[in-house]
Design goal:
1 helix; mainly alpha; single chain
Length: about 50
């Protein structure tokens, strides 16, 4: 019983660590993505 709880807890910790890593990656990439989308939108807006 305690082994199952322990494995579930370690799985949860792994999932949280992965989520934190993914969040950090998104936080690094987000300014670039926002800049690119702003440039694209301004170009499209000029053409419209």
């Amino acid at each position: 019983m305690s082994t199952r709880i322990h494995s579930e807890r370690s799985l949860l910790l792994q999932t949280q660590a992965t989520a934190v890593r993914a969040h950090a990656l998104v936080a690094q990439k987000l300014p670039v993505a926002l800049t690119l989308s702003a440039i694209i939108l301004s170009i499209v807006g000029v053409k419209l």
